[in-house]
Amino acid sequence: MKPLIDTEPSANGNVPGIKSGKRRNPFNTQRLKEEKERRQKKRARLIVRNISYKSTDETLREHFGQWGTLEDVQILKRGDGKLVGCAFVQYETINQATKAIAHANGKEMLGRKVFVDWAIGKDEYAAKHLKDDEPADKKPKVELKEETGDEENGVGSADEDEDEEKPEMEIGDEVGNDSVAEHDDDDEEEEEDDEAEADDGSDDDEKKDKKELKAKLENLKQEKHISNDVQQGCTVFIKNVPFDAEDADLRKVCRKFGVVNYAIINRESVSGHSKGTAFVKFKAKESADLCLQAGTEFTLLNDVLDPHPALSRDEIKTKQTKDSKDDAGKDSRNLYLAREGLIMANSKAADGVSASDMARRHELEQVKTQVLKNLNRFVSRNRLSIHNLPLNYDNEKLKQMATSYTGFRPHECRVMREQKVTPEHPQGKSKGFGFLSFDTHQRALAALRKLNNNPTIFGTQHRPIVAFSIEDRAVHRIKEKRNERSKQNNPTYKSKLEQRKERREQQRKGQKPTKPTTIAPQNDNKVKLQKHIKKLEASRAAKAEGKKQQQQMASDVQGDYVGTAAKPGTSLRMRSKKKIMEQASEHMKRVKTEKRKQKNKKIRETHLAERKANNRPKQGRKNEKDDLRPLINKYKNMISGNEGGGGVTGGGKVKKPKRTKWFTD
Length: 665
Description:
- The protein has helices spanning about 25-40, 55-65, 95-105, 120-130, 150, 165-180, 195-200, 205-220, 245-255, 285-295, 315-325, 355-370, 395-405, 440-450, 475-490, 490-510, 525-555, 575-615, 630-640, and strands at about 45-50, 70-75, 85-90, 110, 110-115, 115-120, 235-240, 260-265, 275-280, 300, 305, 305-310, 375-385, 410-415, 430-435, 465-470.
- The strands form 5 sheets. It has a 4-stranded antiparallel sheet with strand order 2-3-1-6. It has a 4-stranded antiparallel sheet with strand order 8-9-7-12, covered by helices on one side.
- The chain is flat, with a radius of gyration of 48 Å.
- α14 crosses α17.
- Among the domains are: about 30-220, RRM (RNA recognition motif) domain (Alpha-Beta Plaits), CATH 3.30.70; about 230-320, 2-Layer Sandwich (Alpha-Beta Plaits); about 335-470 and about 560-585, 2-Layer Sandwich (Alpha-Beta Plaits), CATH 3.30.70.330.
- It is α+β, with helices and mostly antiparallel strands.
């Protein structure tokens, strides 16, 4: 055998005299080589910011293909599919990339100014921005803007669709531009995951982007938003806004005058319908002035808008006080009482009202609006009209019902009837409505608030509809003349008139008017005089307390079922037919949902009852006793014992006969 030579390799593959080490893997070298080439190519990678939201891979390839051959184009998107506003462009060589930066940076692409720069890795981007960090006190306050990124850079957009993006999109654009560089990594530690980080769909990057978004939004919430005051003239109040318009439509129309901070349409608190007015706040006063100077060209949904300068709350209060003073005493028709007891569709008062009752209310309201168009009609202060009466009600029953539920005795109770007389209805068939009259307005108001929509009078599905009656002025004058004639025919009234004339003549001459002769107590008896004075004081105090109680009852009687309470001095704002139809549809939806809920509740109750019936506790089995079995056994024994002809004597035991081996049962 030959001895081992030093130059021969050993069994382990290690050469003697050389330090033992791992053999280089050829596949690993190939991988490292590919990664090195890929990193060199990454140096020719560019980031393009502020791209149009209409841009695609083809448009980017056409635009950036002018300065070299493109290997890859990536447009970053959010989770919902919307564009972030930036993209990555990969060239073959660095010279082509530098040429693209020189020619494309700051130039327009699809009507927007584009900014091109080198794409850098996460660590390099973070190291750069650490130096730029400053304390929160020194940083300028950030304000939300409603314009897209191109307006921030001073260049207007060519397409209006791009300007319709919301402020949230702009925040997302800025974050997307900051986070774009994070997708690109040049470090050797993360070489294998570099392509995954450049892709927008990776989970880690999405989480980091969301965290950054939340942090920026929290900072924006913490910082106080400094808004322009109304006194600076930046806010505009717009009238004649279409009822179908939305906030976005109004904002889009107002943007042609300048930068808009917000545009809000005023809506009803209960129903949510538009009031036909809106507030628009501009960033600059010049744009607000342009909006105020706009003429018939300022339209929205084919309706010309009417802009006015917005007023502060103090100015509105002073204007309202002036208007109330000017309008004092002008409401001779008592039009504010027409809205007393009105029930809105989505209010608490409409809860439990049947669809037929609400339809009847809407019909009466529509008739009321048509009747009040006549200027000779006015709303009575002491007379009420009550609808939805049962057909068996007469004047006496109506009076009893009114006195029992209100506590006041009306001096007029009348149920309106047809003139046709039949055997079934000798007085005429009832029309289903009537009238109630009271001495004072306070009593009439308290009676309305106690009777209107009260579910305890006729039932929950058939409630009374009470309102102040509408009178004709000509008919009212005829009634007054009739009353005057009756008074003149009264002899006591004539004597009173003569006494009044004598007082007036004495006042004209300067003499003290003589008081009418009344039976007075004797002056010599002081005790009787004191008693009389006390009685007079007590009666006056009782009258004053009664008036206060009536006023309190009129003001305090306001339950959940009564409806709206009208205030004096308010202008008449009866609802149009369109609004009444909308209210009717809203109430029908509410009634249907309530019926569905009640039906589902009954079904649940029946199911629960069935489950309780099925889930009864198991009862133990009863041991049934067979009373005939012992008697049968007894007779069997007797029969088997008497087979040999012997009789049974006594109550002793019966001897069984011996059985042979051949015996079988």
